[in-house]
Write a structure and sequence with these properties.
Layout (H helix, E strand, L loop, with lengths): L4 E7 L2 E4 L3 E11 L4 E9 L9 E7 L4 E10 L8 E5 L2 E3 L3 E4 L8 E10 L4 E11 L2 H11 L10 H21 L3 E5 L17 E6 L2 H10 L4 E4 L12 E7 L8 H11 E12 L4 H6 L15 H8 L5 E9 L5 E3 L3 E3 L11 H10 L9 E8 L1
Parallel strand pairs: 2-11, 12-13, 12-15, 13-14, 15-16
Antiparallel strand pairs: 1-3, 3-6, 4-5, 4-10, 5-9, 6-7, 7-8, 10-11, 16-20, 17-20, 18-19
Helix pairs in contact: 2-7
Length: 377
């Protein structure tokens, strides 16, 4: 039986759409000994449900041999010509396509390049992450998806991770925080998960969604709730001794500028505590891809990038650093996944999840999530 060979070189591996437009270059070397179709399929990064989160698909007929093609993507309007495929100056027309004109753009989308055979079997599949940093799209996404029950997932993994993280952070807050504390991009604010008497300091919590801050003020009047953009703080220089940035860095279009702004409002020797996903967590290393955990994560950082580059280059010395959770129970499909976050995300596996949460401390560079304590220089 003759062996099928499909060699693909894709550039870039992830694409930031400027004005909802961008281009991907694909070099191919095809030696396929059966009928096949090349398809381009665009979904929201998560969840990938049809049709609501499905932008569209386009199918093309290619011949064996070498090809150098360019995929021009234009999502200003969702229509047939939202995807144009060029080889040299010649356009390759799709033999079939489907688009969803009602599709709403989200911050992260997935462009799949797929080769199918006549039996609808996947011969090979490659993914390109599409990032859309348009402010209106980001605002719409947060307003739609960040509801007040965001910290109460039905499945146990995220709930257990949240409470394990709360336990660690409580120790850090008591040890390092004092004076006025600013909770940046707070959402519901982790501080509301604790009793008021736990804190010997005054808390200011802020997020960009006005309605949410108004509701939180009614629920917890002991906290000062403020509406602000995490990258443009409405405070004077040296206003706070302590800052908490919980799962916010990865959402920002320009985290370097945001850190400089946080540094501006913080007093000298003040403490910043950051939690964020690890770009080089074990699953990403196994898949040889830097795939984000959530569809609104515009830029995730590795353990080294966060602690050795991002924080030191923006005015902070790292005091303490650790990892949370190690993805050890893996399942292999055409990609590798963490079983405990998918089919194994069940109450009877809670004991193993708790064990792996602690194991992340021993292997922080490959851990799922990161916690860093840093001091303003």
């Amino acid at each position: 039986m003759m062996k099928t060979t499909i060699e693909l070189s894709i550039h870039p591996a992830e694409l930031s759409l400027e004005g909802c437009r961008g281009s991907i270059k694909v070099d191919m070397n095809l030696d396929i000994h059966e009928d096949f179709i090349f398809a381009v399929d665009i979904y929201s990064s998560q969840p990938q449900t049809h049709p609501d989160n499905h932008c569209g698909w386009w199918q093309f007929k290619l011949e064996n041999g070498e090809h150098s093609i360019r995929l021009n993507i234009d999502l200003t309007q969702i229509k047939k010509h939202s995807l144009q495929v060029l080889e040299g100056e010649e356009e390759i027309s799709p033999i079939n396509h489907w688009v969803n004109p009602e599709y709403e753009l989200v911050p992260l989308m997935e462009c799949k390049l797929v080769f199918w055979n006549a039996k609808d079997e996947i011969l090979t599949l490659k993914r390109v992450l599409l990032k859309c940093k348009n402010t209106e799209i980001l605002d719409r996404f947060y307003r739609k998806h960040h509801e007040l029950d965001a910290y109460s997932p039905e499945l146990p993994f995220l709930d257990l991770l949240h409470h394990y993280k709360l336990k660690i952070l409580k120790k850090y807050f008591k040890k390092y925080f004092k004076g006025h504390v600013l909770d940046i991009g707070c959402g519901l604010s982790l501080f509301t998960a604790y009793r008021k008497k736990d804190w010997p300091f005054q808390i200011f919590a802020g997020d960009i969604v006005f309605g949410r801050m108004k509701e939180r003020r009614a629920d917890r009047p002991d906290i000062n709730w403020v509406v602000f953009d995490a990258s443009k703080l409405p405070f004077k220089r040296n206003s706070f001794m302590s800052l908490f940035a919980g799962e916010i860095l990865e959402h920002l279009p320009d985290p370097e500028s945001a850190l400089q702004e946080w540094n501006r409002v913080q007093k000298k020797n003040g403490i910043l505590i950051v939690t964020t996903p690890n770009r080089r967590r074990r699953i990403n290393v196994l898949n040889q891809q830097d795939w984000p955990i959530s569809p609104d994560h515009l830029r995730e950082f590795s353990f080294e990038e966060l602690n050795d580059s991002l924080l030191p280059q923006n005015g902070y010395d790292v005091v303490r650093k650790r990892g949370l959770y190690l993805e050890l129970w893996t399942k292999r499909r055409w990609w590798t996944e963490d079983h405990l976050q998918r089919e194994g995300n069940k109450p009877n596996n809670a004991w193993l999840m708790r064990l792996l949460f602690r194991l992340g401390y021993s292997f922080p560079k490959k851990a799922f999530g990161l916690i860093t304590v840093a001091r303003k220089t």
